[in-house]
Amino acid sequence: MFLKGWARARALLLLPLRIAYSVWVFALALGVGLSALPVLAVLPGVTRRRAAARTLGRIFFTLAAMPVTLRFAERIPEGQCVVVCNHASYLDGIVLTAALPPRFSFVIKREMAAVPFAGWILKRLRSEFVERFDRKRGARDARRLMRTATLRGTSLVFFPEGTFTRTPGLLKFHTGAFATAARASCPLVPAVLRGTRRALPPNGALPRPGRIEMQILKPIAPLATTPQQAAPELRDRARAAMLAALGEPDLTCSADTARRPDRARARPVRASST
Fold first, then answer.
1. CA–CA separation, 199 vs 67, rounded Å?
2. pLDDT digit string (tens) for 14-41?
3. Mean predicted confidence (pLDDT) in 169-182
4. Class of residue 207 by CB neighbours under 10 A (exposed 0-12, middle 13-18, buried 19+)
């Protein structure tokens, strides 16, 4: 009882500091975002714009007392590749922008294109938007991604879970990233993020300072001889590597993995069937 009472009292004492820190983080995010508008508007070339976004992202995380560390960056191939990463927070995309080289294009849910301010920035960074709810439009977006990867040799970044939940762990993977890597005959690079869930929790809690780490795992080349066989093989091998590196549970969920994070509920943990 004493320990519980002390914990509540301590939380109340720290609340003003947490509120002040939250105000600072949101003001900082607004300031960095507004600074990005003229920079991204006038800079020619998508690589320059992505490099500028990377610098602004690093400035934000440094001033927010959320230093970002990239481990094993040497594992990222110099040529074309597809990066897949776990998804735990709204910060994840910004972290990857700050951490990865500017040659990567991010694959993002299409509804983000309609978000004021953020949608314009994502378009200027030439992000690839994909539909999650309309099957026909989603199929068209998937074919476009295949062409982008195979004909242009673009390196892409995916969050294969498609969303995140309050519960730590990996949700079911969509196959788009793995089919794209198989079709393009390029390495698949799994990566894991640590610290973003604590820094900005999915349940709407106040942000917290702390270290954020992105770890690049060993690239995976398919053993199968056809893209149809290679895609599920890449998915399963990447998932196993990411689960081992994260040390988080393998969450099995319904086919509806596209629910909003504040509504998504993970089912009890059991062995993955994928």
1. 11
2. 678 889 999 999 999 999 999 999 999 9
3. 92
4. buried
Q: Could you say which DSSP state residue 250 is in?
A: B
> Residue 240 is encoded by which pair of tokens?
């196993």
Could you tell me if 160 and 84 are in contact, meaning their C-beta atoms sit under 8 angstroms apart? yes
Q: Token match 């508007």: residue?
A: 41
Reading the block at residue 8, the tokens are 């509540």
Which residues are paired to 82 by β-bridges? 156, 188
What amino acid occupies position 189?
V
- Residue 160 and residue 191 in contact, taking contact as beta carbons nearer than 8 Å: no
How far, in Å, CA of 102 to CA of 99, rounded?
A: 9
DSSP codes joined into one string, 169-208: SB-PPPSHHHHHHHHHT--EEEEEEESHHHHS-TT-PPP-
pLDDT attached to residue 38? 94
Residues 200 and 262 sit within 8 Å (Cβ to Cβ): no
Residue 263 CB neighbour total at 10 angstroms: 8
156 DSSP β-pair partners = 82, 105
Domains and CATH numbers, the chain: 2-246 (3.40.1130.10)
Assess contact for 80 and 186: CB atoms under 8 A.
yes
Condensed to tens digits (0 to 9), the pLDDT of residues 218-274 reads: 999 988 778 889 999 999 999 999 999 999 999 874 334 334 444 444 443 333 333
For strand 104-109 and strand 155-158, is the pairing parallel, antiparallel, or unpaired? parallel
Position 100, amino acid: L
pLDDT in tens, 83-117: 999 999 999 999 999 999 999 999 988 888 888 88
